[in-house]
Specification:
The structure is a single chain. The protein is globular, with a radius of gyration of 21 Å. β7, α5 and β8 form a beta-alpha-beta unit. The strands form two sheets. Strands 3-4-2-1-5-6-7-8 form an eight-stranded mixed β-sheet, sandwiched between helices. It has a six-stranded parallel β-sheet with strand order 11-10-9-12-13-14, with helices on both faces. It contains 14 helices and 14 strands. With 378 residues, it is an alpha/beta fold. It has helices at residues 17-31, 70-85, 101-106, 127-143, 152-162, 183-188, 208-217, 236-247, 259-267, 283-290, 301-304, 319-330, 336-349, 352-372, and strands at residues 2-6, 35-41, 52-53, 56-61, 89-93, 111-115, 146-149, 167-168, 195-199, 224-228, 251-253, 271-274, 295-298, 313-314. It has two domains: 2-172 and 351-372, 3-Layer(aba) Sandwich (Rossmann fold), CATH 3.40.50; 183-349, 3-Layer(aba) Sandwich (Rossmann fold).
Length: 378
């Protein structure tokens, strides 16, 4: 089976939830014999990264590095390439790229669409961009040969808004690589189990400012707050996070980290917090659980779907409640046995091997349904 993938910036190690999803998923599908070509965006994928990685083949295609245009222009070029190269399945990720699903279908391509979340709810988009994203969702859900939802929340959305069915195949989490305290902790002046960690892109819907303000309001002697995410230049929100962090003692901004450095930060954290206002299914939260960390998360539907204990959620945007939870959780660390139970639970629920097998079945059904001219409607 030949599969072409679009909707990602680049691989591997490019910041973003969809990028992490595709990186983990398709290397496993390649091991199962699927021939995978990932269409990546040239500004994010340097030529020196090579044309192949873990059985995946990369196709670098130009895109502007401009918010609002980047995904749309690149997906148009990617679909055009797919029309020429004729893969067995074109796998489109996210509602923005989904805008071009009808074009792919018009030229006879078999399209599998994965809905990662209603991106039009993100705070960074203006009114026109939100309209395009809603249109992309509509066209992808109505026109794709087959659909995948990464959470039950999204599956219900597709069913209720478009009367279409979607396979529920969630994000997964790989086995964590545990790292002893080393250079990363030394670089940032951190003490094991004495810092709160948040890992995500620095964008408004991730609510880093809520976490900084809550940390400023609580009494945690000897603790630090570590925020890991790319510090993009000339970004108003990033500038605001930097400014506020400089005003609060013991806040550390690490910039984007990956590999062993990120594993070391996860392994040795005392608490992980995700205060976000928008998620599809939060990969960073699952990753924190894979290290056996105790976690706190905002009470949005996507976070609630992970299935944490009730006291591990706080009301979105409630700074005082979050501050109180930080104080409580910092003083009650999990035992080694509890950490082991957390690790085993998350891998049982969100196993990438099972997710890859389910996706392989969806790809096979996509080719079969398209040949028969069928649709998977409810």
């Amino acid at each position: 089976m030949r599969v072409m993938v679009t909707g990602v910036r680049g691989l591997p190690g490019v910041e973003g939830g969809i990028e992490s999803h595709v990186e983990q998923l398709y290397r496993r599908l390649a091991e199962q014999g699927v021939e995978v070509e990932v269409v990546v965006r040239s500004p994010f994928q340097p030529e020196e990264a090579g044309a192949r990685w873990h059985g995946l083949r990369f196709r670098r295609i130009w895109s502007p590095k401009t918010k609002g245009l980047e995904a749309l222009v690149h997906t148009l070029f990617a679909v055009s390439w797919a029309i020429v190269s004729r893969p067995d399945v074109l796998h489109i990720h996210a509602v923005g790229p989904g805008l071009f699903t009808p074009l792919a279908r018009l030229f006879g391509l078999k399209v599998l669409f994965t809905h990662h979340g209603p991106d039009y709810d993100r705070e960074k988009w203006g009114a026109f961009a939100k309209c395009l994203l809603r249109l992309g969702e509509y066209l992808a859900c109505r026109c794709a040969s087959e659909r995948i939802a990464i959470s039950k929340t999204i599956q219900d959305l597709i069913r209720e808004k478009y009367a279409m069915d979607a396979r529920l195949i969630p994000n997964g989490v790989p086995r964590a690589k545990l790292c002893a305290p080393g250079s990363a902790l030394q670089q940032f002046g951190l003490e094991p189990q004495k810092y709160i960690l948040q890992v995500s892109r620095l964008v408004p819907e991730k609510r880093q400012l809520d976490l900084v303000n809550a940390f400023d309001n609580c009494q945690l002697d000897g603790w630090k707050l570590v925020i890991t995410g790319a510090l993009k230049r000339n970004d108003p929100y990033v500038d605001e996070v930097i400014k506020r962090s400089l005003e609060v003692d013991d806040v550390v901004l690490t910039d984007f980290r990956q590999g062993d450095e990120l594993a070391e930060l996860f392994t040795n954290a005392g608490l992980f917090v995700l205060p976000s206002a928008h998620e599809g299914l939060p990969i960073a939260l699952l990753e924190a659980l894979s290290y056996g960390l105790q976690v706190l998360a905002s009470d949005i539907p996507a976070n609630l779907e992970v299935g944490l204990n009730e006291h591990q959620y706080f009301k979105l945007g409630n700074i005082d409640e979050l501050a109180g939870r930080l104080e409580c959780f910092a003083t009650t660390p999990p035992s080694p046995a509890q950490a082991t139970d957390i690790i085993e639970w998350v891998h049982q629920e969100y196993d990438w091997g099972r997710i890859a097998s389910d996706t392989h079945k969806a790809l096979a059904v996509t080719t079969r349904m398209s040949k028969l001219g069928l649709r998977n409607d409810t």
